[in-house]
């Protein structure tokens, strides 16, 4: 407690976090990060995350750093979720007495979320896919923030959608429920903000595991496209819609490239697009609209 973090960091900065660390290996600054979390020095832990290059923790489920980080985030997220979606809050809103219920809310939770919670959740990035219940609760908390329609809340929601929700979704098995949950957040932002987030997501730097997930999805999708013919169009369209639950932009780009091939007539392009996306969720359709606009601009 007597030393400034800026004095300590140079001592452990010689070894950076490895994008693909050995399982079970904890690097010096990761060890310090864990110690800060366990000591409940969350603001200092958040400050540590901002020092040096971007951190990439191990992607395996048994990584101790990730478990400790998600455990810390869980307490904060569940506290906010239990207030915004608890029975007494919902009952009060229906009865028109929500203002009387504010006394039940621990406002420190909101301050903690602003001061260090956002930073810790951003550090969790795609690792939230390891706990789908927690990811869903985070999504619903962000939906509540988006409903407030303040600039501060909007900026917070946009950052966490870009750095946490969309990356985490890409790691999950096809999950239409999660896809709808995330869409309910995105839908609050308006199409300009959504399309800006889609562009940022496509262009952002990815760690090795994210690249692997994206490449695997591309290969699987290409096999579907190669099998497409008049007889199995419906079946493959369903399979593509399933993939779009986790990879809406990748699927949308592949469908647009395939449907608008140079040798297709305009009416056939429209017919093929409609038949391929008839099973898409609203998020999948929105991603398709973004890709179409991108291709004609």
Automatic annotation (TrEMBL):
The lineage of its organism: Eukaryota, Discoba, Euglenozoa, Euglenida, Spirocuta. InterPro entries: Tho2 (IPR040007), THOC2_N (IPR032302). GO terms for cellular component: THO complex part of transcription export complex. GO terms for molecular function: mRNA binding. It comes from the Eukaryota. One of its GO terms (biological process) is mRNA processing. This is THO complex subunit 2 N-terminal domain-containing protein. Residues 127-238 form the THO complex subunit 2 N-terminal domain.
């Amino acid at each position: 407690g007597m030393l400034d973090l800026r004095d300590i960091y140079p001592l452990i900065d010689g070894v950076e976090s490895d994008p693909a660390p050995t399982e079970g290996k904890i690097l010096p600054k990761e060890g310090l990060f864990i110690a800060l979390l366990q000591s409940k020095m969350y603001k200092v832990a958040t400050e540590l995350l901002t020092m040096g290059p971007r951190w990439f923790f191990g992607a395996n489920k048994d990584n101790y750093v990730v478990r400790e980080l998600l455990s810390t985030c869980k307490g904060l997220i569940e506290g906010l979720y239990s207030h915004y979606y608890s029975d007494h809050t919902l009952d009060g809103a229906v009865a028109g007495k929500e203002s009387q219920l504010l006394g039940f809310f621990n406002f420190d939770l909101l301050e903690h979320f602003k001061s260090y919670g956002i930073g810790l959740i951003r550090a969790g990035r795609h690792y939230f896919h390891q706990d789908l219940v927690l990811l869903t609760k985070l999504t619903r908390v962000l939906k509540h923030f988006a409903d407030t329609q303040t600039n501060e809340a909007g900026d917070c929601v946009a950052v966490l959608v870009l750095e946490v929700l969309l990356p985490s979704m890409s790691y999950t098995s096809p999950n239409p429920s999660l896809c709808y949950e995330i869409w309910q957040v995105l839908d609050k932002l308006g199409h300009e903000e959504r399309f800006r987030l889609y562009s940022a997501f496509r262009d952002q730097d990815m760690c090795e595991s994210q690249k692997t997930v994206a490449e695997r999805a591309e290969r699987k999708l290409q096999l579907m496209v190669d099998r497409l013919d008049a007889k199995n169009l419906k079946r493959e369209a369903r399979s593509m819609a399933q993939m779009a639950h986790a990879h809406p932009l990748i699927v949308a780009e592949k469908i647009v490239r395939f449907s608008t091939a140079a040798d297709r007539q305009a009416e056939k392009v429209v017919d093929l697009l409609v038949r391929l996306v008839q099973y898409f969720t609203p998020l999948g359709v929105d991603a398709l609209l973004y890709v179409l606009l991108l291709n004609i601009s």
